[in-house]
Design a protein that fits this description.
With about 400 residues, the chain is of the alpha/beta class. The protein has 2 domains: about 130 residues, Immunoglobulins (Immunoglobulin-like, Sandwich); about 230 residues, Rossmann fold, CATH 3.40.50. The protein contains 12 helices and 17 strands. The strands form 3 sheets. An 8-stranded mixed beta sheet has the order 10-11-13-12-14-15-16-17, sandwiched between helices. Strands 3, 6, 7, 8 and 9 form a 5-stranded antiparallel beta sheet that branches.
Length: about 400
C-alpha cells in the first residue's frame, strides 16, 4: 500500500498548533462515569480541515497541581510561552487541552505535572529541563516508548500515520522468535543482534541505550531479512555522546579498530563496505552520514535520520539555525548511497536534511530523501529505520 503523504500540523504565526475547544466533553464531564467511558486516551475528534483532526488530551486533575501536554516537536516550538499547552478544567476532575493535528502524525508526548507551571517555564534551559523532568506518560494511552531524557513517553499515532509492518507486528505483540542482544568483546560498549546462519549484511546503529529499550529485536525478527545483523553502538552519557558522535575521525576509528573486527570475529562474515550500513538519529545521524561520506572504505551506505547537520566543531549547537555545519560545508567528491529522512515538524533539521541531500547528490552519491509526519522522535524513527533498510 502506498503510504499517505506526510502532512505538517498547521500552526499560527507563532508556531502554536490551533486549539480546539472541549465541546461535548463538557456535558460528558458533568455526568458520572467519565473516566470509565473514556479509558483510552487521547480522544480523537472530528476532521476540522482536510487532513487535520481534533485531538483531545485529558488529565485527571489533582488539587494544587497544574499540567501541560508536551507533544514532541509540536507544542515545544513555543516553550517560552507554554500557556497554549496548559490543561483547562472541563468539569469535575476532567481537564482537557485539544489541538488540530495532522492525521498522518506520529509523535511521543508526556503530561508534565507540577505545583505551578509558569507561562515562561521554557525560557531557560534549566526551566525547560524541569518541565521534562516532571513529564509522565498518559495513563490512558496504551503505547509507550523510552524517553532519551529518562522515563517513558506515550505515543500518539494518528489514523493515517505511517507504520512499517514489522514494527506494527512487534507493537501488537504478535508472536515471533526474537534473537537476543549479545555483548561484543570490545572496549566500547556494543551489542550484536544476529539471526541464525550466515551474516551477509551489517547495520551499525548508534545510541544502543535507546534501541535496547525498544522492541527492536522482535521487529527485526518480524522483518525477517536473512543474513542481516545489527551492531548496537553505545553512546554513554550525554556528555560522552556529544564528545563522540559529531566527530567523524573518532567515529571512524571506533568502527575500523574495534567494531568491524569484533563483528568479523563473532560471525565469520566478510564485511566489505558494500555490506556495511550505518544508521543513526540526531548526532547519530550525523555520525552515520560522516562515515559514508568520509570513509567509503568502511561503510557503503547510510540511513540518516534527523541529523544534526548544523554542527560546527567548537561551537555550542544553536537552538535554531538553517546554516549548514562542518560536514555539509566541507563535502567534496563522494561515493556510496545515503537515505535521508526528517520530520515534517522539524523546522531546522528538515530543511538542513534537504541541503545535505542536495550536496551529497552533487558530490556524486546515490541519494534518496523523504519526510515523515513527526518531529525529533523515536515514534517515527523506528518505522523510518526499517523503511530505510528496505530502500537500501
Amino acid at each position: 500500500m502506498t503510504p499517505e503523504v506526510p502532512r505538517r500540523t498547521p500552526t499560527d504565526a507563532e508556531g502554536v498548533p490551533f486549539r480546539v475547544p472541549a465541546g461535548p466533553l463538557v456535558a460528558e464531564a458533568a455526568s458520572g462515569g467519565f473516566w470509565e467511558r473514556n479509558a483510552v486516551t487521547p480522544l480523537l475528534g472530528d476532521e476540522v480541515a482536510p487532513g487535520v483532526r481534533a485531538v483531545h488530551f485529558l488529565w485527571r486533575g489533582e488539587p494544587g497541581r497544574e499540567a501541560i501536554v508536551h507533544l514532541n516537536s509540536v507544542t515545544d516550538r513555543h516553550r517560552e510561552n507554554v500557556a497554549p499547552a496548559r490543561f483547562r478544567r472541563v468539569g469535575g476532575d476532567v481537564w482537557q487541552v485539544g489541538f488540530a493535528l495532522a492525521d498522518t502524525l506520529a509523535a511521543s508526548y508526556r503530561i508534565a505535572v507540577m505545583p505551578r507551571i509558569a507561562d515562561d517555564a521554557g525560557r531557560t534551559r534549566p526551566g525547560w529541563l524541569a518541565v521534562h523532568g516532571a513529564g509522565l506518560p498518559d495513563p490512558g494511552c496504551p503505547e509507550r516508548l523510552p524517553n532519551p531524557l529518562g522515563g517513558q513517553s506515550s505515543v500518539l499515532r494518528m489514523p493515517r500515520s505511517r507504520q512499517h509492518p514489522a514494527w506494527a507486528a512487534a507493537r501488537r505483540g504478535d508472536p515471533v522468535r526474537a534473537y537476543p542482544p549479545v555483548r561484543l568483546a570490545t572496549r566500547h560498549p556494543a551489542w550484536l543482534l544476529a539471526p541464525p546462519g550466515r551474516v551477509t549484511r551489517v547495520l551499525l546503529l548508534f545510541d544502543a541505550e535507546n534501541w535496547l529499550a525498544l522492541a527492536l529485536s522482535a521487529a527485526l525478527a518480524h522483518r525477517a531479512e536473512p543474513g542481516l545483523a545489527v551492531v548496537l553502538i553505545g553512546s554513554g552519557t550525554p556528555v560522552e555522546r556529544a564528545g563522540l558522535l559529531p566527530r567523524p575521525a573518532l567515529v571512524s576509528h571506533l568502527v575500523a579498530a574495534e567494531l568491524l573486527p569484533a563483528v568479523r570475529d563473532a560471525t565469520d562474515a566478510a564485511l566489505g563496505p558494500g555490506a556495511v550500513i550505518a544508521a543513526g538519529q540526531s548526532f547519530g545521524g550525523l555520525a552515520a552520514a560522516g562515515l559514508v561520506v568520509l570513509r567509503p572504505d568502511l561503510v557503503g551506505s547510510a540511513i540518516v535520520q534527523s541529523a544534526s547537520f548544523q554542527y560546527v566543531e567548537g561551537r555550542d549547537l544553536p537552538r535554531f539555525t538553517l546554516e549548514p555545519g562542518d560536514l555539509v560545508r566541507g563535502m567534496g567528491r563522494a561515493t556510496g548511497r545515503v537515505h535521508v529522512q526528517a520530520g515534517t515538524e522539524e523546522d531546522e533539521l528538515g530543511p538542513l536534511s534537504r541541503v545535505f541531500a542536495d550536496r551529497a547528490d552533487g558530490a556524486g552519491m546515490a541519494v534518496s530523501h523523504e519526510l515523515w509526519s513527526g518531529g525529533h522522535d523515536y515514534a517515527w524513527w523506528t518505522d523510518g529505520l526499517f523503511a530505510g533498510l528496505d530502500a537500501l
